[in-house]
Specification:
Pfam families: AAA-ATPase_like (PF09820)
Number of domains: 3
Protein name: AAA-ATPase-like domain-containing protein
Radius of gyration: 30 Å
Distance between the termini: 56 Å
Strand order of the largest sheet: 7-8-9-10-11-12
Structural class: alpha/beta
Organism: Rhinocladiella mackenziei CBS 650.93
Helix content: 40-55%
Strand content: 5-15%
Number of strands: 12
Shape: elongated
Length: about 600
């Protein structure tokens, strides 16, 4: 839209395009003026980029030269013979140099018009060049890797872009050169490396005034649906689907504004609906969080722990809020690499995911919290983490086994691998049983074949209320109870000073040694792990008796009639081992302890 408002060649179309719109009011009030620039436009989205640096650099050079050629086609007849002569010999292999020659030629042509006092010339009131760069990060998505910062900083595509932006900055010094630059699809990660030093940069990503322009509003989508189908029941069905999968973006940091839909996802859905096809909403093409950035995050333990917490839902079914202090305007691959396995502050990672659409500002308290916007973003987070560890297919098979047999051992083994890989920083070693259960439920059990309910309320054998940590059912006869317990590393008698050293000891232990580990400085648990589970410790209460009280209570006994009932105690030990023991419908142990691995 900027092209049509500011472009000199669209002056004659102004009334048809903008009359009576809000911007027209600003024009009539003298706040802004249309058609005062020559538009120099580049589209960096292109096809999928080649992973060969030379081929990618060639494509970028071709795209830059194409933008310059289009500019000459649009304006050469107005800029005159001197401009045509100065820009007639462009070099295919030097797009940055071609840009410099074009800017100089435009500057000289417009200066000559004013020096001659040609007030009746069509370009008399043109101020210079307005540069538009769309989908600027498309190339970087294929190359940038904060875990290997040098892999991004010195490849041919980057050198091509750096040379391009150097000449953009030089062009800003000319009186009739580049007067404004508008870039879309760019993160501060790229700005800091390529456009650093540009004058008067302004990040308008989270301004309240333009937040509704960053997506489609609910009224936009509803109006489109009603144009396609007059059946209001069908309209409401489709809007609910889109709200679940594509809505939830809040592009204002300082105050609450209207949530918007992802434009690309919503338009693809609407087009399919209009064409009478089944809309593809589960995994839309070229939408939401770019895949390369998900893989980058999936390699950073600090980011993964954050993502796993964000994926959990509260009692109302909303994704968990993630507190934050600031959103950074600029950061580098080196900073991301430093925070990948570090402690404490991970503001760089959180800022990256906000700019990439993986997180958004919480609509109720945008200045304090982030959250995942919708189900598509959540699914892509989960998939990236599991695929990074080659667990995606394995977990799918494990959950199908659980649905068929009621046995969670394979699923727990997958969670054990996930936990060992990512729980490497101090905060991770302090996870509660609620954290572990929530991550297991979110990361492992998300499957249409089962229904996993956390904190399932039952009446115990004493008829008082109790909450089973996890109930797993399906629409057939599956009924599996899991009671989660967690032992943090500081609560165990292990050698060493650092938690990571103790974790390595735990990972190497066999079943017998783990069951024989003793508690240390624990207010509620004494003796060994085995004695605590079986209720033979010196302090009251046991894991065994707690699960027995749930099973023997009226709620469970009524619900398990004619069901394939199974119950398990699952004990997370120091984020490195998972103890499992089964109990039958009569409250008796079935077999011995096992390690999920």
């Amino acid at each position: 839209m900027l092209r049509y408002f500011h472009g000199f060649q669209f002056r004659e179309s102004y009334d048809w395009l903008f009359k009576d719109l809000d911007v027209d009011k600003a024009v009539k009030a003298g706040i802004t003026q249309p058609g005062r620039y020559l538009i120099l436009e580049f589209d960096f989205s292109g096809p999928t980029y080649s992973h060969k640096h030379e081929e990618c650099a060639e494509f970028l050079a071709w795209e830059i030269n194409l933008g310059l050629s289009n500019f000459k086609y649009d304006y050469a007849e107005y800029l005159g013979d001197s401009f045509a002569s100065a820009t007639s010999t462009f070099s295919e292999k030097d797009p940055a140099g071609n840009l410099r020659h074009l800017i100089n030629a435009v500057d000289l042509a417009l200066q000559d018009i004013h020096d001659r006092g040609e007030k009746d010339h069509p370009l008399w009131d043109v101020r210079g060049i307005y540069l538009l760069a769309d989908e600027y990060d498309a190339c970087a998505n294929d190359y940038i890797d904060p875990h290997e910062p040098l892999s991004w900083s010195d490849v041919e595509p980057v050198r091509t872009l750096k040379a391009f932006w150097t000449n953009v900055k030089v062009g800003e010094k000319s009186f009739y050169g580049i007067r404004n630059v508008y870039i879309t699809g760019v993160t501060p990660l790229l700005l800091s490396g390529l456009t650093s030093g540009a004058n008067h940069q302004e990040n308008i990503s989270f301004n309240a005034e333009i937040s509704a322009l960053c997506g489609l509003t609910r009224s936009d989508v509803l109006e489109a649906l009603r144009l396609i189908d007059k059946n209001e029941e069908e309209v409401q069905k489709h809007i609910r689907t889109l709200e679940k999968y594509a809505n939830g973006y809040h592009f204002c940091q300082r105050r609450s504004v209207e949530l918007v839909f992802n434009t690309q996802t919503a338009l693809l859905y609407l087009q399919a609906f209009k064409d009478g096809k089944e809309p593809e909403i589960m995994d839309p093409v070229n939408s939401e969080v770019p895949e390369p950035y998900l893989w980058i995050c999936a390699r950073a333990p600090a980011a993964v722990n954050d993502m796993q917490c964000a994926l959990q839902r509260d009692e109302h079914g909303s994704y968990q809020k993630i507190p934050y202090k600031e959103v950074l305007d600029g950061f580098t691959p080196h900073q991301l690499n430093t925070q990948a396995t570090g402690e404490g502050d991970i503001s760089v990672w959180r800022s990256l995911m906000v700019y990439m659409g993986g997180l958004t500002f919480d609509s109720n308290d945008p200045s304090s919290f982030f959250k995942i916007p919708n189900l598509i973003a959540a699914k892509r987070f989960r998939s990236a983490i599991l695929k990074r560890l080659s667990l995606y297919d394995t977990i799918g098979d494990a959950v199908h086994t659980l649905a068929r047999t009621g046995n969670p051992m394979s699923a727990l083994a997958g969670y054990c691998q996930l936990m060992r890989h990512h729980d490497k920083i101090e905060d991770a070693f302090l996870k509660t049983e609620e954290h572990h259960r929530g991550i297991f439920q979110t990361m492992i059990l998300k499957n249409r074949s089962i229904d996993a309910m956390g904190e399932y309320q039952v009446k115990k054998v004493t008829t008082s209320a109790g909450f089973v940590d996890l109930l797993i059912t399906n629409n057939q006869n599956l009924y599996t109870l899991i009671e989660f317990k967690n032992i943090q590393i500081p609560c165990l008698k292990l050698d060493g000073e650092q938690n990571i050293d103790k974790a390595e000891q735990l990972e190497a232990m066999n079943l017998t040694k783990i069951l024989g580990l003793k508690f240390k400085d624990d207010k509620y648990r004494t003796g060994t792990i085995r004695n605590w589970i079986d209720g033979r410790g010196s302090k009251p209460g046991s894991v065994c008796k707690q699960l027995q009280s749930y099973i023997a209570g009226p709620t469970v006994q009524k619900e398990i009639v004619d069901k394939n009932f199974r119950a398990f105690v699952v004990v997370i030990v120091g984020s490195r081992q998972i103890l499992v023991r089964e109990m039958d419908r009569n409250g008796n142990w079935v077999g011995n302890f096992q390690l999920a691995k």
